[in-house]
Amino acid sequence: KRFGLDPYAGDIVHEPPLNILLYSVISSYSSYFFILLDILSALLLKISIDRIHKSMVAQEVNQECHSTFEKLKMTLNEKTGYYTLLIFLFNPYSIALCASKVL
To answer: Which of 5, 19, 28, 77 would staple 15 via disulfide (CB 3.0–4.6 Å)?
Structure first.
């Protein structure tokens, strides 16, 4: 009805009124929605990588690999979640997408 047309007068819209209201709210906050979605997906990716790393370290401890190389490998992998988070959030394509939605 914003443009003077009734969306239910004919074959213009085939959506329930609540969906149309939801779409209008999402479209007004779409820039923030995409930014929050990127941050949420990066955090979920980091959490999953941290859990995988903990299970791998537990497996290595159970196998009793105590060589220096294995210990170095375990400590280097502790920061893999943070590196993945940084790479995901500071990806130029991701930044360009969020910037295009904001501007």
So the answer is: 19
